[in-house]
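Justification of computing resources. Each target in the renewal requires a structure prediction run like the one illustrated here; the chain below, 275 residues long, is used simply to show the kind of job we budget for.
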Amino acid sequence: MSWFKRKDKKIEESTNKKDLPSDLWIKGTCCGEILYKPELEKANSICHHCNFHYPISSDRYLKIILDSDYKELFDNIVSTDILNFKANKSYQDILDNVPNNKEAANCYYGSIDGNKVVLSIMDFKFIGGSMGSAVGEKIAKSVDFAIEKNCPLIIICQSGGARMQEGALSLMQLSKISARLANFSKKGGLYISLLTYPTTGGVTASFGMQADITIAEPKALIGFAGQRVIKQTTSQDLPEGFQTSEFLMEKGFIDVIVDRNTLKSKLINILSLLK
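Resulting structure tokens:
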């Protein structure tokens, strides 16, 4: 039975062991699989296991949707600490430390396969895509610009809701944008809304759900309040996945669910039919 015994006991542990950088891998939000980040980014941040669409920046959406001949609108409008808000950390410190983003909404005038559009993109990387006064003003001006240019309006929603550091001023943006959209509709404008992960709070309760055509990405989280709050309020068990785009489409809140890789072609079809 000598083959069960280790004869050579002078085995040393290799000193050449290399640790993989921790920022190269993430655990899947939906499926729990371990995902290689560079590969995920190459696939437009779509999980190849479960088709979950991870949030992406406004720059990425810009490249996916618009032709190259676009210009940015209202980039001089930025958030300021109007209320001198201070809690654990001052609002101004938060604004000063947001990397590479001017605002939680970026607006553009360009074309999709030759069809002129105004495109507003919310960015979750800027304080959770929360809507403050600057966001409301930029989107409201985008609506007015779409009226002026007589072209369709597209808003990509990606937000945690109203920005608490601006108090009631952030909530006032909901009615301001809604009024502009009502005027846009009266003038025969076409408004397309794209709901992504996540679209919650006041954005869902206002312009996110007021479009002529409402599109959503697969498995997007869409709702007003959180599941725990709703359950405590209603004292009822909630259906599984009731805040997903698939559930909302089944109930008639969403017109179509579109994969990010086919989003541009779907928009071209909609614009050619309805513009």
